[in-house]
Write a structure and sequence with these properties.
The complex is a heterodimer of chains A (about 450) and B (about 550). Chain A is of the alpha+beta class. Chain A has 19 helices and 16 strands. In chain A, a hairpin with a 5-residue loop joins β13 and β14. Chain B is of the alpha+beta class. In chain B, strands 13-12-11-8-5-16-17 form a seven-stranded mixed β-sheet. In chain B, α1 crosses α3, α9 crosses α10 and α11 packs across α14. At the A-B interface, α10, β7, β9, β11 and α15 of A face α8, α10, α11, β21 and β23 of B.
Chain lengths: ~450, ~550
C-alpha cells in the first residue's frame, strides 16, 4: 500500500483480480508476539519478588515477619522461588524464623527475558530460553501473548513467466473472453428461399411473379376447380371482404374456361364467383396466368412467393407460407423428364435418396409426389408434388403441348435444414434465434 | 384427405394369393399414403377423387390388379328388379330434391368392421360427391323391415317418426332444431314447409333425406338383406354415389337387384362407358415406347378393360371410376399399371438460360446494403391483426382490408404497412441485447373496391441513443448506395411518429414514404422502453 499509494480497498481489489487471473498467490501466516503484562512491567522495574527479598537480606539476615511486612503479598512467591534457586536459608530461634542469604545471586534468565522485552514485544524466535519464558507465563499477568495474522502476496509461476517488458509495450490479454456482438444478416428462411431460387436459375428457369390477392378465376376456375369444390369454401380459403375483380381476364379466356367447366363438371358456371378476390392458395395461379398470356411453345419458368390457407396456426401449419413452382413446356417433354428435373433439383439441395409415388392433384394428370429420405429422422418424408397439367387446364387457353409442373412449400425444407419442429419459429422474429442461428447448417 | 384403416389379415384374405409385405409395399403405388403402421393394421390416406378406396374391398380390388392376381373390370352384376322393387316419385318432391335411385343387396354378411366401413364410405360420399349432402345423400336400410314398394314424397314439418338412435317419435321440426344431423344439414332444405320423405307400402317412414334414417330400418350385424336409396339435386352425383355403394356391396358378397324409380331402371345409370386412347399420347406423356397390347395390359392391371380396335385402344371404364375424364386420365392409369417405380428419370434435351426477376435482384441488393449498415432481416406475415396494424400505432383504419372468417385472430387484416410489424418484433424482444436494428421488405395492400399490391421496405433502429439523425443517415445511405438517389425530407405529421421529429421522404419531389422517431404513446402501446426511429418507403413508387 505504501509503495503503490493505493487505498486499502484498491489494493484489496487489485490483489483479488490478480488472484482470479491466477497471477498472484496469497499465503496467510500467524505469528505470536510476547509483551509484558502489568505485573511483568512492575517486576522489570522493581525486580522479581525473589530479587526484592534477596536485596532486603543482602546486609544481614532479617526476621521472617519483618520481611512479610515489606513484601506483603509477594512474600510467599519470593520465599518459594528464592528457596528453589537455593539463595536463602531459613533458621528458627525462639522469636521466630530468620532468613539469611546464602549466595549473592546473578541475573536469572527470567530477569533477562523481562529486560529484553521491556516495554516492547518480541517473537518466539528472539527468546533463547524458552523454559524461562514458560515459567514467566505461569506468573499471573507477567506475559501477554498477541497473535498477528499476515497475508503475503507473491507472484504465481504463471505471472513470473509474463514478459513484463512486453506488457509495458501495450500488449493485452489476447486470450481473455470478450463481449459478443451480433452480425447483421439475412433471415434464415430467406436464405433457404434464396438457395432454392438459385437452384431453379441454375437449372435454366426464369423467375415470374404475380399478385398475392387473386380473383377466384385465376386461383380456381382456370385450374378446372369447380365452383362448389370444398377447397373453395371459406373454411379453407381466405376471401377478401368487399373486393371484386374487374377486367381480370379477356372475354375469350372467360368464355373458354366457362365452357370447359359446364362440359366437364356439368353445372352452371357463374362469373360472379370468379370475380371474388381470394388470397392465393398456391403459386399455380401465377403459372396458369403466365401460360394464358404468353402461350409459350417452349418455356422453363418458376414463381416463388407467399401463399395462404385459412387454417388454425400450429407447429405444423401457418396461414401464410412460401411456395415455389416450376414448369417446363416443350414438344416432347414427358413424365420421366419431370422426374429427372426433380432428381437434379433435390441433388442440388443435398438430397440424394429420393423416390416417386403416385398421388392426386386436381389440376395435374398424371400426378406424382416426391418422397425424400431424411437421415436425421430416419424416415421417408413427402416433399414436392408434380404432374402434367390436365388438358382441361391448358386447352381453354390454347396450350396444346405438355406442361410439366411441380412445386411445394419452402418452410418444410427450411425446417429440415435448421432442424426445427415448429414452423412458427420462422415468423416469430425472436432475436435470440435470429442472432444465434449460423448461416451454414 | 380422408383416411381408412385396413386390417391386414382381412385385406390379405380379400386380395388372395399374396403376402402381407407385398400388400404393404404396393399400397403407395395405388396412390395411398401410409399414415400409421402396426402389426395388425395399417392406416392409409386416399385421394378424395377415389371414394371406392374408403373400404378395404375397394382397395383389395385395386391391389389384385396391381399384383396381377385379377385384372380387368370387376364386373357389376345387377339382377332384374322384382315386381315391387320400385320407388314412386311424388311430383311435389321434384321441386325440393328431385332425383332418387335405389338398389337392393341380398344374402350378405355384415360384421362390425364392415358396418363401420360402410358408414365411413357413406360419410365420405356425403362430403365429397354429395357436397355435404346437398347434391346427393344415401340411406342404407334393413330390407326385411321394409314393405316394398316405396314412395318418395313430401311431408309437412309436423310429420312424426322414430329417427335413427332415438326411442320415440319426433317431429320433423324437432329433428331439424334439436338433433345434430338436423342442425347441421337443415340449410339444404331451406324454409319450405314441405320436406322430402320416403315411406314404405305400409306408410312407415323409412328415411328423411338428406337428414336422417328411421330407427325402424337400422342395419345391424344380423342384417342380411339391404335396401339402398340415394336422393339429391344433381343426377350425376346421385348415380356416382350409387355406383360406389353398389361396387362395395358386391365386393362384400351381396347379390344386387335393380330398383325401378318411376319405371326407370336404377341399374341403367350404373353402366360402363368407353374412352378411346392413342398409344402415341401414352408414350409421349410417360416417355415410354409401349405397344398397344402392353398398354391394354397396364389398363387391365388398373381394373379397367381395354382392347385394341382400329389401331386405337378402346378402354371400358366401370361406373364408379368417375374420376376418369378423358384420355389423359387413362395415361396415368397406364403409368400406375406400368409401375411408377419402374419409370427411370430422364432429362429434357432443351437448353435454356435462367434468370431471377428484376424485383428479386433489386430486393437482394437492398438487403445486402442494409446488412452492411448493421440491420438484420425480419419476416412478418402479410396477414396480421388490427391491433398491431392500427390500434397500437394509432394509424387510420378507415381503409382496412379484411379477410372473411379467419380461423386465427392474429391473421385477419392485410397489412398496408410494414413498420407496425417491426415494432411488434421489437416489443417481443425487449429482453434481448441492444442495439436492435431490423429491416423487412414485403408486399403491402391498398385500395378501395379493388386491391393494389406494392412492394414496401421498412427498417427500425432501437437503442438508447437512437434518433432522427441516425435513421435519416441510414435512409440516405441506402438510397445513395443502391441507385445514387438523393432524397429530401420535409416536415410532416403522422400518428405513428413523434411530432416535430417526423418527415415525408421525397424523391424528385414525389413522396415515397415517412421517416422519424416513433411516437411515445405508440412506444407505450408496444411496451418498448428504448427510443425507436424508423422509416418506410414504397419501392414500387420509385425504384421497382
Amino acid at each position: 500500500m505504501e509503495k503503490t499509494k493505493l487505498s486499502a480497498d484498491q489494493t484489496r481489489r487489485g490483489i483479488e483480480w490478480l488472484r482470479l487471473k491466477n497471477l498472484a498467490v496469497v499465503q496467510e501466516s500467524e505469528q505470536l508476539f510476547f509483551a509484558l503484562g502489568k505485573n511483568g512491567l512492575g517486576a522489570n522495574k522493581e525486580g522479581l519478588p525473589e530479587r526484592k527479598l534477596v536485596n532486603l537480606i543482602s546486609g544481614a539476615p532479617v526476621p521472617f515477619d519483618d520481611l512479610r511486612k515489606k513484601l506483603l503479598d509477594e512474600m510467599n512467591v519470593a520465599i518459594a522461588n528464592a528457596k528453589k534457586n537455593d539463595w536463602i536459608t531459613i533458621t528458627k530461634n525462639d522469636s521466630g524464623s530468620i532468613v539469611s542469604l546464602k549466595t549473592n545471586p546473578n541475573q536469572t534468565s527470567e530477569e533477562k527475558i523481562l529486560s529484553v522485552i521491556g516495554e516492547g514485544k518480541i517473537t518466539q524466535d528472539q527468546i533463547k530460553d524458552s523454559a524461562a519464558l514458560e515459567s514467566l507465563k505461569k506468573r499471573p499477568d507477567y506475559i501477554v501473548i498477541e497473535s498477528v495474522k499476515t497475508k503475503t502476496i507473491s507472484l504465481s509461476e504463471e505471472a513470473k513467466s509474463i514478459d513484463v517488458d512486453a506488457a509495458d509495450s501495450g500488449a493485452i490479454d489476447v486470450e481473455a473472453d470478450v463481449p459478443m456482438i451480433h452480425a447483421a444478416k439475412t433471415h434464415p428462411l430467406k436464405d433457404t428461399i434464396g438457395e432454392i431460387r438459385e437452384i431453379f436459375v441454375s437449372l435454366g428457369f426464369t423467375e415470374i411473379a404475380g399478385n398475392l390477392a387473386q380473383p377466384g378465376f385465376w386461383n380456381f376456375d382456370a385450374l378446372f376447380t369447380p365452383q362448389d369444390h370444398p377447397a373453395r369454401e371459406m373454411q379453407d380459403t381466405f376471401y377478401i371482404k368487399d373486393k371484386r375483380a374487374q377486367n381480370f381476364a379477356t372475354q375469350a379466356q372467360i368464355n373458354s374456361v366457362s365452357t370447359y367447366h359446364k362440359k366437364g363438371w356439368k353445372y352452371p358456371w357463374n362469373l360472379d364467383a370468379a370475380r371474388k378476390m381470394v388470397l392465393r392458395t398456391h403459386t399455380t395461379c401465377v403459372t396458369i396466368k403466365y401460360l394464358a398470356e404468353n402461350k409459350p411453345t417452349e418455356a422453363r419458368v418458376f414463381s416463388l412467393g407467399r401463399v395462404f390457407r385459412n387454417e388454425k396456426v400450429s407447429y405444423k401449419h401457418l396461414v401464410e407460407f412460401n411456395q415455389v413452382e416450376g414448369i417446363v413446356v416443350g414438344k416432347n417433354v414427358s413424365l420421366r423428364d419431370l422426374m429427372g428435373i426433380q432428381t437434379q433439383f433435390y441433388k442440388k439441395l443435398g438430397l440424394n435418396k429420393i423416390k416417386f409415388w403416385p398421388t392426386f392433384f386436381p389440376y395435374t394428370e398424371p400426378s406424382l409426389q416426391t418422397m425424400v429420405y431424411n437421415e436425421k429422422l430416419d424416415k421417408w418424408i413427402e416433399l414436392f408434388g408434380m404432374g402434367i397439367f390436365r388438358p382441361e387446364v391448358t386447352r381453354p387457353f390454347g396450350i396444346t403441348r405438355p406442361v410439366l409442373a411441380w412445386g411445394g412449400g419452402i418452410e418444410r425444407i427450411a425446417m429440415l435444414k435448421y432442424g426445427l419442429d415448429d414452423v412458427r419459429e420462422f415468423y416469430n422474429n425472436n432475436l435470440n434465434w435470429l442472432r444465434s442461428t449460423p448461416k451454414c447448417q | 384427405m380422408p383416411v381408412v384403416t385396413l386390417y391386414l389379415s382381412r385385406l390379405q384374405k380379400l386380395v388372395g394369393k399374396t403376402s402381407k409385405n407385398r400388400i404393404i409395399d404396393s399400397l403407395p403405388f395405388l396412390g395411398l399414403d401410409i399414415e400409421e403402421q402396426t402389426d395388425k393394421y395399417i392406416r392409409v390416406e386416399y385421394s378424395p377423387n377415389r371414394p371406392d378406396y374408403a373400404t378395404d374391398v375397394g382397395i383389395a380390388t385395386g391391389l389384385q390388379g396391381l399384383l396381377g392376381i385379377k385384372k380387368g373390370i370387376a364386373k357389376l352384376v345387377v339382377k332384374k328388379a322384382d315386381r315391387n322393387y320400385s320407388i314412386r316419385t311424388d311430383p311435389a318432391v321434384k321441386k325440393i330434391r328431385p332425383y332418387v335411385l335405389g338398389l337392393i343387396a341380398k344374402g350378405g354378411k355384415l360384421d362390425d368392421e364392415i358396418i363401420r366401413q360402410l358408414i365411413a364410405l357413406q360419410e365420405d360420399l356425403h362430403f365429397g360427391i354429395g357436397r355435404r349432402r346437398k347434391k346427393a345423400s344415401i340411406g342404407i336400410h334393413n330390407l326385411d323391415a321394409v314393405k316394398l314398394p316405396l314412395l318418395y314424397t313430401v311431408k309437412s314439418r309436423v310429420h312424426k317418426f322414430v329417427p335413427l338412435a332415438a326411442d320415440k317419435e319426433v317431429s320433423v321440426s324437432q329433428i331439424l332444431d334439436t338433433m345434430d344431423a338436423g342442425k347441421e344439414y337443415s340449410a339444404i332444405l331451406g324454409s319450405a314447409s314441405g320436406v322430402p320423405m320416403i315411406l314404405d307400402a305400409q306408410q312407415n317412414t323409412i328415411s328423411f333425406p338428406p337428414i336422417i334414417n328411421s330407427a325402424l330400418t337400422t342395419v345391424t350385424t344380423s342384417t342380411t338383406n339391404i335396401l339402398v336409396e340415394v336422393t339429391g339435386n344433381d343426377p350425376s352425383a346421385v348415380s356416382d354415389t350409387l355406383s360406389v355403394i353398389a361396387s362395395a356391396l358386391q365386393g362384400l358378397g351381396f347379390t344386387l337387384y335393380d330398383v325401378k324409380t318411376d319405371k326407370k331402371s336404377s341399374a341403367e345409370s350404373l353402366k360402363t362407358r368407353i374412352i378411346s386412347l392413342e398409344s402415341t399420347l401414352v408414350n409421349q406423356i410417360l416417355g415410354l415406347n409401349l405397344s398397344s397390347a402392353q398398354i391394354c395390359n397396364m389398363l387391365r392391371k388398373c381394373r379397367l378393360d381395354a382392347v385394341v380396335r382400329n389401331k386405337k385402344i378402346s378402354c371400358t371404364i366401370p361406373r364408379y371410376r368417375f374420376d376418369i375424364f378423358g384420355p389423359m386420365d387413362l395415361v396415368e392409369e397406364v403409368g400406375l399399371g406400368y409401375g411408377i417405380q419402374n419409370l427411370s428419370p430422364t432429362l429434357p434435351s432443351s437448353v435454356s438460360v435462367g434468370q431471377k426477376s428484376e424485383t428479386t435482384l433489386k430486393l437482394d441488393q437492398l438487403g445486402q446494403i442494409m446488412i452492411g449498415l448493421g440491420f438484420a432481416e425480419a419476416l412478418n406475415s402479410s396477414l396480421t391483426s388490427k391491433q398491431i396494424l392500427y390500434n397500437n400505432t394509432k394509424r387510420d383504419s378507415a381503409k382496412l382490408i379484411e379477410v372473411a372468417e379467419s380461423k386465427s385472430q392474429e391473421h385477419t387484416v392485410l397489412r398496408d404497412s410494414i413498420l407496425p410489424g417491426l415494432l411488434e418484433n421489437l416489443s417481443k424482444n425487449i429482453h434481448e441485447q441492444y442495439p436492435q436494428k431490423l429491416f423487412e421488405t414485403g408486399i403491402v395492400f391498398s385500395g378501395n373496391s379493388s386491391i393494389t399490391e406494392s412492394i414496401s421496405f421498412a427498417c427500425v433502429t432501437a437503442h438508447k441513443d437512437s434518433g432522427y439523425t441516425e435513421i435519416k443517415s441510414v435512409l440516405q445511405s441506402l438510397l445513395k448506395t443502391d441507385s445514387n438517389i438523393e432524397c429530401k425530407t420535409k416536415t410532416a405529421q403522422d400518428p405513428m411518429f413523434e411530432k416535430g421529429k417526423t418527415a415525408e421522404i421525397l424523391v424528385n419531389g414525389k413522396k415515397i414514404g415517412l421517416v422519424g422517431e416513433i411516437d411515445s404513446q405508440v412506444m407505450e402501446n408496444f411496451k418498448i422502453r428504448v427510443p425507436v426511429s424508423g422509416f418506410e418507403i414504397i419501392l414500387s413508387d420509385f425504384l421497382i
